[in-house]
Amino acid sequence: MFRGMYISTTSLINNQNKMDAISNNLANVNTAGYKKDGVLSESFPEVLLSRINDKNIDYSNKPFEGVELEQDGEVYSLKTDGAYFKVGTPAGEGYSNELKFIIDEEGFLKTYHRDQKDNIESDGENYVLGRNGRIQVPNGNLQIDDDGNIIAGGQTIDSLITIPKPNVIGTLGYGVRTDRVFTNFTQGNMMETGNNLDIALNGDGFFKVQTDNGTRYTRDGSFKIDNNGTLVTNEGYPVLGTNGAINIGQNQFTIDEQGNVFLNGQRANSLDIVTINNEEYLRKEGGSLYTLAEGTTAEEGAFTGEVLSGYLESSNVESIKEMVEMISTMRNYESNQKVVQAYDGILEKAVNEIART
User: Fold this and answer.
1) How confident is the model at residue 53 (pLDDT cuts 50, 70, 90)?
2) What pLDDT is stored for residue 351 in this prediction?
3) CB 88 within 8 A of CB 110
4) Is the predicted pLDDT of residue 50 greater than 60, yes or no?
5) Residue 35's Cα: distance from chain center in Å?
6) What's the angle, vertex CA 108, arms to CA 105 and CA 111, rounded to 5?
7) Rounded to an integer, what distance in angstroms lies between the CA atom of residue 286 and that of residue 289?
8) How many Å apart are CA 236 and CA 337, to the nearest integer?
9) Helix 319-356 vs helix 3-27: crossing angle, to nearest 10
10) Which residue from 176, 234, 182 is spatially nearest to 44, judged by alpha carbons?
11) HSE-CB for 118 with a 13 A CA cutoff
12) How far is C-alpha 124 from the geometric centre of its chain's CA atoms?
């Protein structure tokens, strides 16, 4: 009876999370090296909707006529009528007439998403379920016949198809939820400052910084020299070189395009700049610093870009696009708010009518 209210409430919460991300992006539009956040949303799993009574009546609109299979590289796409595919999600099992999945490194069939570089990722995604649970194919060799059966070594090991009971009349959705907040690491524009303490990275990479809690990463190159003559961030954390902290003292210094630090014309150190191959696990820590998600370690690689002394990288936030997104999100929020208010009015009227009887 109140499903519409619950669904609209999930949308309100999801849109509030989007507004939080947009507000933070707009607040940091002028922050050097800031990377904007985005919110990925996903629907709650759809469940099968059945009639409690009249169990012997067949409500199926179409008989099962097999599956349509398409393959594009490592992505498999399936469609069917008269049956469902099943996936296991954190919120329970979900059903759908269409399914896209890949085979992960362990041979499991999983849904996927594409990262900012359009690479296919399955971490945190859902397992495709067969009649025997999670589906794992040996050596990544997958064969699917026209009936949705999974064949390995000439033997049928499972089936992707769930045939609904006769009293199933369709699927039922429960709204939307925030799947994850991600950081967009695309590079911002370069701003010339003329200050040789301002350093920008042209290309994928991060400066390494030593904090009280360990090594952190940053794209914000607005550095300074502290009272000890050490190159530090605005928060006072030492910027790391390949030989440890970079001590400049009172010397004249320059930094070349490879990140080498020269004191009075002599090479003294090099900025420790690395790429993070698993940057999807980087988490913002404040002060333009990044750390790795709990339980993960950085997959560091060599920096192949260019170091620009006298420049700063601007934020990659486009204020006009963020404002447009904010307006769209607000309208969506207001629409769902009206649905909740309408249900509240219906409930109030129902209570008043009951009280009169």
Assistant:
1) low
2) 78
3) no
4) no
5) 14
6) 95
7) 6
8) 46
9) 150
10) 176
11) 0
12) 9
By CB neighbour count within 10 A (0-12 exposed, 13-18 middle, 19+ buried), where does 250 fall?
Answer: exposed
- Which among 133, 126, 125 has a CA at the least distance from the CA of 150? 133
pLDDT tens digit string along 96-112? 888 899 888 888 898 88
- Residues with Cβ < 8 Å from 72, sequence gap 6 or more? none
**Residue 279 φ then ψ, to 5°:** -65, -15
Q: Are 336 and 15 in contact (CB under 8 A)?
A: yes
Q: How far apart are CA 13 and CA 32, in angstroms?
A: 30
* Residue 214 predicted with pLDDT over 70: yes
- Are 48 and 54 spatial neighbours (Cβ–Cβ below 8 Å)? no
The rounded distance, in Å, linking the Cα atoms of 62 and 314 is: 56
Coil/strand/helix, residue 237:
coil
**Residues for the chain: how many in total?**
357
Break the chain into its structural domains and give their ranges.
Answer: 61-171, 190-313
Task: Calculate mean pLDDT across residues 296-321.
Answer: 95
Q: Which residues contact 322 (CB under 8 A, 6 or more apart)?
A: 22, 25, 26, 29, 36
pTM, 2 dp? 0.73
